[in-house]
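Thread: Modeling a multi-component assembly for a lab meeting

Hi all, long-time lurker, first post. My supervisor asked me to bring a structural picture of a complex we are working on to next week's group meeting, and I have zero experience with this. I have the sequence lines for every component (1112 residues in total). Could someone generate the structure of the whole assembly? Inputs are pasted exactly as I received them:
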Amino acid sequence: MDRRDFFKIVSTASAGALAGCGNHTGKVIPLLVPEHEIVPGEEQWHPAACTECAAGCGTLVRVMEGIRTIERGGETVRQRVAAIKKIEGNPLDPISGGRLCARGQASVQSLYHPDRLRGPMRRSGERGQARFAAVSWEEALGQAADEIARQCGADPLGIVFVAGPEPGTRSLAIQRFTAALGAPAPVVCSIADHAVERRAADMVFGWKGLPVYDLARAHCTLSVGADFLGGWASPVYYARQFGAFRQGRSNVRGRLIHAESRLSLTAAAADRWLPLSPGSEVQFLAAIGHLLLDARLARNTDALPKQVAAAFQSADPGALLASCGLAEKRVRELVRELGESEAPLVLAGASLVHTNSLDAVAASHYINLMLGNVGEPGGVLAPASAAAPGRRPHDSLPDGLPGQQPAPNRAAAEGLAGAQVVLIDSANPVYTMPRSAGVRDALARAKLVIALGSFTDDSAAWADLLLPDHHPLESAMAVVPAVSRQLAAVVSTPFVEPLYDTRAVESTLADLARRIGVEYSPVTPRDIVEPLLAQPSAAGGATYDDVARQGGIWLDAPPAEPRLAGVALELASARFEGDPAQYPFLFQPYLSLEFHDGRGANLPWLQELPDPASSSIWGLPVEIDPQTAAKLRVANGDMVRVESPHGSLEAPAYVHPGAVPGVASMAIGDGHEHYSRYASGRGANPLAILAPVWEKSTGALALGATRVRLARAGGSRGWIQFAAPDREERPFGRR
Amino acid sequence: MVARAAAAPSVQPIAYSHKQHLALGLECLDCHSSADTSAAATLPSVRKCMLCHAKVAASNPEIRKLAAFAANHREIPWQRVYGFPPEALVKFPHAPHVRASIACDRCHGDMTKATTAELQVKHTMGTCLGCHRQYKATEDCAACHY
Amino acid sequence: MTHTQHRWGMAIDLDRCTGCAACVVACHAENNLPVSTPELAAEGRTAHWIRIDRYYQGEFPDVKVKYMPVLCQQCDEAPCEPVCPVYATYHNPEGLNVQVYNRCVGTFYCANNCPYTVRYFNWFAPQWPEPLPLQHNPDVAIRPGGVMEKCTFCIQRIKRSKEDAAQEGRPLADGEVRPACVQSCPAEAMVFGDLNDPESKVSRLAGNGRATKLLEELGTKPKVFYLHKAT
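Re: Modeling a multi-component assembly
Sure thing. I ran the full set together rather than chain by chain. Output:
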């Protein structure tokens, strides 16, 4: 359909719910765009789902004629195909609202990436060397099925399926596959699964899934530890909310106070940034709670569980704020501003997980409770999955989804340790887990390792078999957004032919199950969508085709009352590994908007996107404060050695005017051993040198729990700064 | 920049005759059906040809070639006669010209006399600008070059 | 300079902008910008038609960061125009500062004269490894080596929207033309429209008390308006 036709659907469907009143008499969306329907110069727009992170944005994809050059029988031929030109947001989708982040837009480059796997391959060198030879699907699947069947007979518990955190058809297929084999449930291995935030919402409010912060209607927001405009839970959604928070109302301009140990995108956008000492979020929030109670600004103290109120009251704000590295007087002023605001909101998360992060996020929920904003406009709202009546539509989905707890990183490491057969999909444990977690050893020991991704990445390099997936834009799928007030599924229908000899993981798993001889029912997007269509809030008569035609379904969910469990407030200090005398700095590897957990690094558009902090391109620096830089005698671009008790790396320095003294930060993204021509062998992976330290209650990898020492390494390799000046040389315009 | 050189009539995969079809009363837009609505005039798909030729002149050797393409679900690899190569850095949309009632033969010559498509009118910047001046259409460079 | 029917302009609200760079990738995808390599980038040959300037102000802990998307300001008194010896850069009737690739001989005078440094030179013919060219937007020229290029305000989108409106026999609606950067912006910080229409959203924002123009003291008369961060 062309843009106008799509927008006709937009004008007849309300964004809040599928208004599928059954009067769609137009032709059903084409499954694939046949060549004769591609008119040169004419565009078609098809809805799809973004799978670059768990946010689950609905997209609109522009399809036009493309000419593909291929080798056929020794000669070069030009083939006319339906080609994807651009990815935008789907205006019907309440998450993206028609907008899309840099990574979502760049994902078309992974479809047309020159180094995408073109068919199944078998290892031809040593494990880890990434040497493979092409093999037929028949041979590859035969070998995989034989070895999995043998392991099933011997010990099905030795089969470990490592998966990503994105819920939907993929995760459902994997869950059914492992269940069919009698193998353990799939382990979600991700540093972006928000295990801490999920557990905190469950613990305090009894909500399953990530809470939704109604930022657009808040008046004063205190955000703590959550880089919600950067690499946190749902960047497009929260950036849209932020725009409306700031300038979307005629009489109110939202004020943002942000407390974080790094000058992140969110800190930069804030009216006030409070540079916290790393890991002191819970101490900070306990002090805020105390000061609010003390100033009688907590308007809803009755709702607070007694032992929590007592814990806040007995807190010593002076000592706590000193441990956060903040001046008490300044914080008192901000607390007054927050408490007196008509619509105050505390938005806390664990962008940088510490050993005590769960306590911090839980404390923030209690503060929202005392501010009376839970479930209110401008407050913290229940996720849709918390309140769906009857059988919850996502109950059939595996771990890491709304409705269930994610498998924490520690469990992934432990699961891999004893694995005999490993299957890896939408995860890159060799890259995202610290070296010290032993993932490589586990993969080297396993009898069989199968990678299902589109690229030979760090983990696929250890595989025996590569069974490459279609690109998401070539696949039928449904994904469930991570942050949503609506019961939702975003649906993709393939509309371009697969470029290569690849197979959707769903069909690869079905094929394997058939060969192994276990019962397995293949997964389709209908498995996710049909339970939603059966919800009372779904429009009567709406069909799966209606959903597919508009790219998803978003249903209003009834409000969920919090079920307070009254969990005690703990104020434990964060634990850091390494002797402070030997390793005097704290290290913060962080998820950036452009590279996320490192997966964006293979795309040239993202590599040449200047890093928001340092403006570096094609390489990421380690960010240090000016005094430390002076002591180390390093300037921008000079190589610095970062050494932890578990390893070391070298990276160019960026002398960051906003870096917290004593803390070295580094965006995750560089240092892939294998990940296409654009990422392989360049830069350093900050995750590699982390200690195997986990958040104490959830087992999430504590990204910020490793101490390091810094030294000048000499030389300055590979540092390219896009825009040189850090400071403005002239006043900005005239007022 | 001169339009792409003409393909000699004989290199077309099927000896299609414009003259014959136009004499039967077909209009340009019947086959080049997007010329009035979009940038590209477009060539008809083999399925469109077969709407008539499934029955009409089915035993003609040229129509047999056509039927073979259709049977194999392959489009006819017509050789392009008009058009600008990418390095010409120029965009030409048909629709506004049709809307301005510029007759097709102004740029494509008298096709009622032509058999297989061949280049009858040279498309140089002079051709375009001459007409634009005559009709007081835009002479802004960015109208076409972007 | 007098303008005919339309006079295109943009307003960027820095109180909304988060520096997320969605606009930068949107522009790359829309306008067939060459893909660089670390080697080319090290020589300063990475092309961006829109970039995010970032500035630090103050000292820790009172450091402030300012992110500011900078694209061609489409100046009414454009310093790049009078210096071009071959008239490759000129002002069109809709107020766009146009670069005609066919005419450009690569003297570099325009880029030297641009105070906003938003012009990029194709030192080499750009290369895209197969099959990346499948993504190319057929509405936008693939620029050859040796020519200057810069933001066009997505002139291809202006034309497509005008053509859609003409086909339907109606005037262009305010907000109907959205350059790729404006379309993508999650915080809706960027607004595009007709400055000749006093009721257009961009005209109203241009008259906002927070509105200012970049380096306007140079007399360039930009048509991009920045709305200062409110306090």
